[in-house]
UniProtKB/TrEMBL annotation:
<dbReference type="Pfam" id="PF00480">
    <property type="entry name" value="ROK"/>
</dbReference>
<protein>
    <submittedName>
        <fullName>Xylose-responsive transcription regulator, ROK family</fullName>
    </submittedName>
</protein>
<dbReference type="InterPro" id="IPR043129">
    <property type="entry name" value="ATPase_NBD"/>
</dbReference>
<dbReference type="InterPro" id="IPR000600">
    <property type="entry name" value="ROK"/>
</dbReference>
Length: 267
């Protein structure tokens, strides 16, 4: 915060936007649960404002990414679209009627924690069979340790393990390719459910893991279209955006700008 004020001497900070994974109640400024925090129902906005000395807005990080697409990206000319993020977890954001949709308590659209297999793989939320448990970094790294014959107690970091797994898959390693193929099938199922529920005009697949082209190969997207009821429905358009960290910052800035503008207009 001191660094921010040093960059803009004499100017008051009107709002700060912060995004984090998990169940975030934007209206109340609380976090019901996040894999990054200990405890539940935390007054996170209040704690941040006390620490930073400026108004703070918090939201789910996938909502921030969706705001970035709405304000600065492919969603600027669209009234209805969805964003699916695949990184440390699996997230989703949704724009309907040109506005970000959050749900009644701001905790909706947890695509990563929809169930795709009863009594399936363990998710970091503590439940089993979540979509995230087959797609996220930790899920793929968990399978990679077995497929590549690594000792889990002496394994690489999840990021390094994924890079190794991807390299092996590209080189034709059968088990490595099968891990990505299975993840792609689960992604196709999750995307088909999304389309069936919300009928978006565009689905944007975003996040650093979009570098792994196995996840959005032609057969994955074809499987998604096959799982959707076909009667009278044109194929859903899908775009892949392998953004870096800057897009998350753009979303946080958009969240702060919305709050500052509402405050200035008294809305």
């Amino acid at each position: 915060m001191a660094d921010l004020r040093a960059r803009a001497p004499g100017r008051e900070v009107q709002a700060i936007g912060i995004g984090l994974p998990g169940l975030v109640d934007h209206g109340r400024g609380s976090v019901a649960w996040s894999p990054l925090l200990e405890g539940t129902d935390l007054p996170f906005r209040e704690a941040c404002e006390a620490r930073l000395g400026a108004p703070v807005q918090i939201d789910n990080d996938s909502n921030l990414l969706t705001l970035a697409e709405l304000w600065f990206g492919a969603g600027r000319a669209l009234s209805d679209f969805a964003v699916v993020t695949i990184e440390h977890g699996v997230g989703m954001g949704l724009v309907q009627g040109g506005r970000l949709f959050r749900g009644a308590r701001g905790m909706g659209l947890e695509l990563g924690h929809t169930k795709v297999r009863l009594d399936g793989a363990l998710c970091r939320c503590g439940q089993r069979g979540c979509l995230e448990a087959y797609l996220a970094d930790y899920a793929l790294a968990r399978e990679a340790a077995t497929a590549l014959g690594r000792d889990p107690r002496q394994s690489q970091s999840p990021r390094a393990m994924l890079e190794t797994l991807f390299g092996e898959a590209k080189a034709g390693h059968e088990s490595a390719r099968e891990i990505f193929a299975r993840a792609g099938r689960y992604l196709a199922m999750g995307l088909a459910n999304l389309v069936q529920l919300f009928d978006p005009g565009l689905v944007i697949l975003s996040g650093e893991r979009m570098r792994y082209d196995f996840l959005y190969a032609e057969d994955v997207l074809a499987e998604m279209q096959r799982l959707v009821l076909p009667a009278g429905r044109p194929p859903v358009r899908v775009e892949v955006h392998a953004w870096g960290d800057l897009v998350w910052a753009q979303g946080a800035a958009a969240l702060a700008l919305v709050a500052a503008t509402d405050e200035a207009l008294g809305t």
